[in-house]
Automatic annotation (TrEMBL):
Residues annotated as domain SMP-30/Gluconolactonase/LRE-like region: 154-385
One Pfam family per UniProt: SGL
Protein name as catalogued: SMP-30/Gluconolactonase/LRE-like region domain-containing protein
Transcription in keyword set: no
Classification via Gene3D superfamilies: TolB, C-terminal domain
UniProt organism field: Podospora appendiculata
Length: 415
């Protein structure tokens, strides 16, 4: 494995130097595995020693991606599947595709809560709440949109299919105030809503994903207290309880009052109505997901962004063991991301972990080895496996559609 990877990397960098196409290597002279046309190998050794390393005021990985000397921004986008480890080839398969399926001039409508509505093979997502270009937050809620996967699939061999996939806004009723996270839930969609101003409390709200798009509130308080601004949620496949995170981004973005609870992770049992605290000790608990067997939970802490950028705070994914009774133990640092924050987090059916970060989607093995990146070159807060190896990735003002060999994992109440 090591030797073949090292030679792949050598060949790949030689090909880059010669200006030839990396896919011209397929299959390698010693029978190495072919590199898909849209993929490139990143030789991490070549990044270890740089001619000069800038201080944090010049480069701090907060917003614009790091472009190492030997690469160009266009080159990284041109072959968006970046192989950091051989095992990423199994995730990609022989012919992964990557397409920009929609774009807006500046309104960040492709932000979060990417979720598959299986019965109609549609994907729903939401606009950025509290963003100046969206005009959302306090006076107006972030809106919900959807696309048809049939239309996305028809253009998967194009790189830019802007205009070919229709984006439809849907009116939730009563309106979900600033939805931010979503899961499939008993044939419907369950949203984590951040709330809007002091009177519209954050809540877990079920949306009927077909007309008239009516909604029902499942939970809107912790024994009488408002949550701060609910962010994301995940369903434990072993007990089907709903676990959700409550950071204070509503306050950071000036559309929610000062927090009335410490930031923590909650658990809701929709059979008994019991609400409990599953974990605390986070600055900004954000994305949450379970491994396919339900034995682990991954929770991100995006404390690096709270009141602006605080560079020495976490930008990390933590893993806990999940016991039979649904409680967590053994908190472990799983990964620290190199660019911006790990926002949405999801597993594939083999338990590999994917997070939406500042330059696309990063993928780790269950033991935390960075396997590769799906590089969008822009903040990609969330994404989702939407049936088989189809993946929809939000990129604020761009929406991406990728097809991989890896497939997502869905639990019973998500079907
Ligand atoms: C991060 O870097 C940018 C320039 O790339 C700079 O404007 C900003 O002040 C830096 N932030 C911090 C907290 O150092
Ligand atoms: C895709 O094409 C449209 C024009 O059809 C253009 O406005 C847009 O910038 C292109 N997007 C990308 C990401 O290349
Ligand atoms: C939508 O309305 C229908 C008809 O009243 C009702 O049966 C259903 O439970 C509602 N769904 C939601 C999510 O509110």
């Amino acid at each position: 494995m090591m030797a073949s990877m090292a030679s792949l990397r050598l060949l790949a960098s030689a090909a880059v130097l010669l200006g030839s196409k990396v896919d011209a290597l397929a299959p390698g002279p010693r029978g190495q595995r072919a590199i898909p046309a849209l993929a490139q190998v990143i030789d991490q050794k070549s990044l270890n020693v740089l001619p000069s390393v800038p201080p944090a005021v010049e480069f701090n990985a907060s917003s614009s991606p790091w472009i190492p000397q030997t690469f160009t921004s266009a080159g990284l986008v041109d072959k968006p599947f970046h192989i950091y480890d051989d095992a990423f080839l199994d995730i990609l398969g022989p012919n992964p595709t990557f397409t920009v399926i929609a774009q807006t001039p500046k309104d960040p409508i492709f932000h979060e809560a990417v979720v598959w509505y299986k019965p109609k093979d549609e994907v729903f997502f939401v606009q950025n709440a509290g963003n100046a270009d969206a005009g959302t937050g306090l006076d107006k809620s972030a809106a919900i949109f959807k696309i048809s996967l049939k239309e996305a699939d028809a253009v998967k061999d194009l790189r830019n299919a802007t205009g070919k996939v229709k984006v439809t806004q849907i009116p939730s009723n009563p309106e979900i105030p600033n939805p931010n996270g979503a899961v499939q839930y008993k044939g419907k969609i369950l949203y984590a809503a951040e709330g809007q101003g002091p009177s519209k409390a954050p809540a877990l709200i079920v949306l009927n994903p077909i007309e008239p798009y009516n909604t029902t509130v499942l939970l809107n308080n912790y024994y009488g207290r408002q949550f701060n601004s609910l962010n994301d949620l995940g369903i434990n496949p072993r007990n089907l309880d709903i676990y959700f995170t409550d950071p204070t981004y509503g306050e950071s973005n000036n559309f929610r009052p000062a927090p009335g609870l410490q930031t923590q992770v909650y658990r809701y049992n929709d059979k008994t109505g019991a609400v409990t605290v599953a974990a605390d000790g986070f600055i900004m608990p954000n994305g949450i997901t379970f491994s396919p067997d339900g034995k682990y939970v991954y929770i991100t802490d995006t404390g690096i962004w709270r009141h602006g950028l605080e560079l020495s705070n976490p930008s990390s994914i933590y893993r806990y063991s999940v016991l039979e009774d649904g409680t967590f133990e053994n908190r472990k640092t799983f990964a620290f991301v190199d660019i911006n924050i790990p926002d949405g987090v999801h597993c594939d059916s083999k338990g590999n972990v994917y997070a939406g970060v500042g330059d696309g989607v990063h993928v780790w093995s269950p033991s935390g080895t960075l396997l590769g990146k799906i590089y969008t070159g822009r903040t990609s807060a969330n994404f989702q496996f939407v049936g088989g190896g189809r993946v929809v990735i939000g990129g604020e003002t761009q929406l991406f559609y990728a097809t991989l060999a890896a497939t997502g994992s869905l639990v019973e109440s998500q079907l």
